[in-house]
Design brief:
Layout lengths: L4 H26 L21 E3 L2 E3 L4 H46 L6 H24 L10 H18 L8 H25 L4
Helix pairs in contact: 1-2, 1-5, 2-3, 3-4, 3-5, 4-5
Length: 204
């Protein structure tokens, strides 16, 4: 199965989205006055517009506005890219990426400090749904393209989903900040690897 120009464009969009997310995250952490400990602080703390204590951790992010704008931009980019990748990645995985993008948009529009319930809904959409889609694309690939590299894709999805479930326990085994970073890392590595495969594939 050879990638179409449309699919290559979509895959390129996914890679750009991942890079932009990394830049936005780094910029927020490096902003003067930001209180962020990767072990304890959630990524959502970087988008909180006020300085306060929540859940036993100090939250202060002067770059919150830029961080939230970045999340919205990344979300929109993933939404558009997913539409372009439907033929190559199948409806389930493409829909998972689209929902991930929509979740990031919701999380950016409704920071945790302003509307915790809507923000949490956005986070669930951005982390759990793409994890389920990656797992489904590994167990029952919709396209011949997804028949390759099923095990590493599935393993990353399982790790992400297990940590998502573990983070909701009353007494989580891992600090939630570190756990969320691993979840996001698994999803981004899996999606990034698939996007690189599409971009680097030879045209037959």
């Amino acid at each position: 199965m050879s990638p179409s120009p449309r699919a290559r464009l979509g895959a390129g969009g996914v890679l750009v989205a991942i890079i932009v997310f990394g830049v936005v995250l780094a910029a927020a952490v490096r902003t003067e006055g930001t209180a962020y400990d990767w072990w304890d602080n959630m990524l959502s703390d970087l988008g909180d517009p006020s300085c306060h204590v929540r859940g036993g951790r100090w939250i202060c992010s002067p770059g919150a506005e830029a961080f939230n704008a970045g999340l919205i931009g990344v979300g929109v980019l993933l939404l558009v890219s997913a539409l372009l990748l439907t033929g190559m990645w199948g409806r389930v995985l493409a829909a998972g990426v689209a929902v991930m993008g929509g979740g990031l948009v919701i999380a950016g529009v409704f920071p945790a400090g302003n509307d915790g319930a809507l923000h949490l809904a956005g986070v669930v959409l951005a982390l759990v749904v793409p994890g389920l889609a990656l797992l489904a694309a590994s167990v029952r690939p919709e396209t011949s393209w997804l028949a390759s590299y099923r095990w590493p894709r599935g393993a990353l999805a399982v790790v992400a989903l297990l940590l998502c479930a573990e983070s909701r326990l009353p007494h989580a085994l891992l600090p939630r900040g570190a756990s969320e970073l691993v979840i996001a890392g698994c999803l981004l590595v899996a999606l990034g690897a698939e996007a690189l495969r599409v971009v680097g594939a030879r045209t037959r």
